[in-house]
Each structure stands twice: as structure tokens, then as C-alpha cells.
Amino acid sequence: MKFSTKVIHAGQEPDPTTGAVMTPIYQTSTYAQTGLGEHKGYEYARTGNPTRTALEACVAALENGQYGLAFASGLAAEHAILNLLRAGDHLIACDDLYGGTYRLFERVMGRYGVSASYVTASNLVEYEKAIRPNTRLIWLETPTNPLLNLVDIQAVARLAHQHGLLLVVDNTFASPYFQNPLDLGADIVLHSTTKYINGHSDVIGGVVVTSNQEVYEELKFHQNAVGAVPGPFDVWLTLRGIKTLAVRMKQHEENAISVARFLDEHARVERVYYPGLPSHPDHALAKRQMRGFGGMVSFQLKGTRADVDNVLRRLKVFTLAESLGGVESLVCHPATMTHGSIPQEIREARGVVDTLLRLSVGIEDIHDLLFDLEQALA
């Protein structure tokens, strides 16, 4: 099946009992068993739920993977992956990454003896130099959050596998519509399904996909043992949202390209970060590695933090809020919102300064979006 068909049908056969076309909400905590060790595939809802199974199968199919596991949030999915590590292990991550991921590495995993090193996202030499005898995995975002740098997944995958390391790719910004890291050599791909996969800003969730059976079985153990699983209604909302993923991503990208071009020519804008612009340093890689450029645009405003605040207060269609990937357009101030957990000196050294804004470009009429930016910047 092609992508637009997969989002509607993969893992979502009509209900075998009733024939219901849409996957039902199995709102139950436990399942009847006919005898010792005899059941219909489900025992307890933390371990498995038919609604959740449908979502896991669907996202796995979209990522061309064999196994999917759903979690209560993107960070819960990340934590499950990090549970593959042991005290004393080391990981390498790109330095431009979500602040919540940095916080998880430093303030949670660090307490248990897991250490992290950070390297320039696009510099393959730095990844190789950072490898230690106790390194176990490499963690990537591509495009990165919030500066939209790209990482050559194939090149880093080759490096990782030469050294016996796992490669993890957070594919939230691109979505499986534009990029499939497993096809490029990654071992594990993860998503905050809160974002594009659900697409309607009404549910929190995460998912992990792999084709490595050994990795899957260990992740499945931690999913059940730790229990950070989504409820069936949240899963059902995500399944409902995923059905329009293909058509939404087309419009997100079309609008984002127009917004990026507008900002790139605006006198009050210092710099625009969008891989779809030919001026972006990773534009050629984006064309080779992705099937499109996505709906995220970041830009640096000329002026001060007070100027930024003034622009934010004037916006009418773009809403100042955290998160991304919904049908509505959002604007985020990374320094005080999504990346506020990163110490200021580290954050600013990486380019997340007070005049940086991140746009999640929605699917509204492009004329309204451009007018809103024009009047706010005027």
C-alpha cells in the first residue's frame, strides 16, 4: 500500500466481532480468560489493548518497520529507549535538540550513571571522535529542534554500526510522510504522536518503531514493566487524526515554504531556518534524504527580547503556545518555552537566543498567515 492508503487502513481492519469499520475504543482494564493460560491475545490493558495495537501497527507500517510500541507521551517513549542502557553507559546526541530530551539525559538518566556527549548535528567527524569504549547509542533529531539542522542519517548509521552502536532518530519534525529513518539505516525511530501524527492538539502520546526483534522485545518489556502507556481514548483520537496525515502534511509544507520565503525577504528578520530554502546549508541533504521539507520554520528577529514580545502580542492567527504539528499555526519562543530547561549559556552557545522564534505553520489559508506575520512585524 502507498502512504495515503496506509494511514487509513494499516493495522485497522474492521472489527472481527461487529464489523465496525472504525477501530472501537476498547475501554477496559482486563480481559476474560477461559482457563489457565487461555485467552484471546489480551490479558491486562497495561500489557496490551486492541485499540493500541491498531495504532502501533499503523505507525510501524508508515515507518516501514516491523514493530511499533505506543506510550503515554513522547518523553515516555524516549525513556523506554534509554532503559536499554545500563549504569556506566554513554550516549552521543546532536547538540541542537528538544529541551525536554536534554533534561531527560542530564537530570534523570545522569542520576543513574548514564552520561551524554553533544556534537554538532551535521559534523560526522565529531560523532566519531565522541565515541568511547562505553558508548552504546547515538541519538539524532533531523530536522533538529529548533534550528532545523539536518543530519546525514545514512552516514551516521554506517558509523554507528561499525562500532556496534544503536542509532536512534527522533522523526517528529519530519513525520513519516517526509522521512523514514529505518530505510536509511536507523535502528529505532520515535515520534511524539502529540504532534503531526495526531495533528489536532488534543492528545499527548508517543511511539517507538523498530525492525530489530531483540530491541523490540526489550522495549516491550519496559513498556509493560514501567507502564507509561496511553489510554484507549487517547489512542483512538490519535488513530482518528492519523487518517488525514498525508493531506495535512502536504498543506503544512506548502504553507511553510511560503512563510519561509516571506520571512527571508523581510527587513526585520535577521535569519530564517528552513531546509526548503536553497540558502539553507543542508538544503541538498534535505532533497536527498527527505521527500519534502516539512511545516516547521524558525527565524531570528532583528532587535531585542522586548521587540520579540511586541511581535508576539500582535499576532492574531498564530497562537503563542508550546507544541507543534497541529492544524492550527503556533509560534513558540524556544528560549523560555521548549528549551528553557537548558542552561542559558549552553542554550545561547547553540544558537537558541532570545530573538529566536519557532513557527509551526498550520493549514489555514496562506494569505491570512502572511498577513498576520506582516502586520505583527510592521
From TrEMBL:
Cofactor list:
pyridoxal 5'-phosphate
List, in alphabetical order, the Gene Ontology terms for molecular function in this entry: cystathionine gamma-lyase activity; cystathionine gamma-synthase activity; pyridoxal phosphate binding
Query: What protein name does the entry list?
Result: Cystathionine gamma-lyase
NCBIfam families, alphabetized = PRK07811.1
Lineage runs: Bacteria, Bacillati, Chloroflexota, Ktedonobacteria, Ktedonobacterales
Name the Gene Ontology biological process terms.
Answer: cysteine biosynthetic process via cystathionine; transsulfuration
Q: Which GO terms describe its cellular component?
A: cytoplasm
**Keywords, in A-Z order:** Lyase, Pyridoxal phosphate
The record's listing under PANTHER family reads: CYSTATHIONINE GAMMA-LYASE (PTHR11808:SF15), TRANS-SULFURATION ENZYME FAMILY MEMBER (PTHR11808)
- A Pfam family matched in the record: Cys_Met_Meta_PP
Modified sites of kind N6-(pyridoxal phosphate)lysine: K195
Per the UniProt record, which residue ranges are transmembrane?
none
For this protein, the record's InterPro entries field holds:
Cys/Met-Metab_PyrdxlP-dep_enz (IPR000277), Cys_met_metab_PP (IPR054542), PyrdxlP-dep_Trfase (IPR015424), PyrdxlP-dep_Trfase_major (IPR015421), PyrdxlP-dep_Trfase_small (IPR015422)
What family does the Swiss-Prot or TrEMBL record give for this protein? Belongs to the trans-sulfuration enzymes family.
